[in-house]
Design a protein that fits this description.
Elements lengths: L14 H9 L2 H33 L11 H11 L9 E9 L8 E5 L9 E4 L3 H10 L3 E3 L1 H9 L9 E4 L11 H6 L15 H8 L2 E5 L4 E8 L4 H16 L11 E9 L4 E4 L4
Parallel strand pairs: 3-4, 3-5
Antiparallel strand pairs: 1-7, 1-8, 2-6, 8-9
Length: 277
């Protein structure tokens, strides 16, 4: 019988070869394949869940068991707010937004016909021709050098003032008030867009204006108080609907789905409504 002896010492095996042999073991190959299968299964589950969510929020709100017409919903919300100060019982909407791939969060401003709170606007201008127009547009106080002097000597209080605008001719005259106005966030500045020749437009844009922004999959907006009439709340609801549906980013092929919308009061129930007014 012929015996063959191999001298391993004369055959050197490179360490890299040994590493490859051990790294491609059956156990590691199985683990990699199993991990890939799990990822595919998770992706399918997420897609299925998303499709179900889309169908749910694309369906008519009238199919929901808690659906009501807005006037009927308001009666329930008013009843639930009995005993609360009417001015503090806020009626709000909460809508679910189902984003599509690549869509951007909704944001913008709503201009309410009936503002939730009075906005007091201060206008600095030396142009006599537009002072009266600013007052008619809803400005709380309008003036030039005389108003600057009143603020300096303390005869005009800034308490309760929400915003301040100015025409370019007043910018240098406001320098002595920089600290007084700045502390309250009322200093008109060009870079903030609060200095303009068209202060009338600034007044109109800011009276009754309420910004909104999508957070996660929701947009929440207060639209009235319980001491508002049904007509006033419905007008505000229509304004909110127009602004939010109109906030879809331009050029989006697959816009966000604005789904189920709930009308509720501060301590009241949530009632599903048809938000597309």
């Amino acid at each position: 019988m012929l015996k063959t002896t191999i001298n391993l010492s004369s055959h050197r095996i490179k360490p890299s070869v040994i590493e490859r042999l051990f790294s491609t073991s059956p156990t590691s190959s199985y683990a990699a394949a199993h991990s890939s299968t799990n990822k595919e299964a998770d992706a399918k589950k997420k897609l299925k869940k998303f499709q179900k969510l889309k169908l749910q929020h694309q369906s008519s709100p009238r199919n929901h068991p808690l659906y009501m017409e807005v006037p009927q919903a308001l009666r329930y919300l008013r009843a639930s707010s009995v005993g609360q100060p009417a001015s503090q019982a806020i009626i709000s909407i909460l809508m679910t937004v189902v984003p599509d791939r690549g869509s951007k969060p909704l944001n913008g401003s709503i201009f309410f016909p009936k503002p939730l709170k009075e906005t007091r606007i201060l206008v600095f201008t030396a142009q006599e021709s537009i002072k009266e127009q600013c007052k008619e547009a809803g400005a709380f106080a309008v003036g030039g050098a005389d108003l600057v002097e009143q603020i300096k000597n303390g005869s005009f209080s800034l308490d309760g003032i929400d915003k301040a605008f100015a025409t370019p001719d007043m910018v240098h005259s406001l320098t002595p008030l920089a600290r007084t106005l700045g502390v309250k966030g009322l200093m008109p500045m060009i870079k903030k867009g609060t200095v303009s020749e068209d202060v009338l437009n600034l007044i109109k844009e800011n009276l009754g204006s309420l910004p909104f922004k999508q957070k996660g999959m929701h947009v929440a907006v207060p639209i009235g108080r319980c001491d508002f009439t049904d007509k006033e709340i419905i007008s505000n609801l229509k304004a909110a609907s127009s602004a939010i549906f109109g906030a879809q980013p331009a050029g989006t092929k697959k816009p966000n789905i604005i789904g189920q919308t709930v009308l509720n009061a501060t301590r009241g129930p949530g009632i599903v409504i048809d938000f597309r007014q």
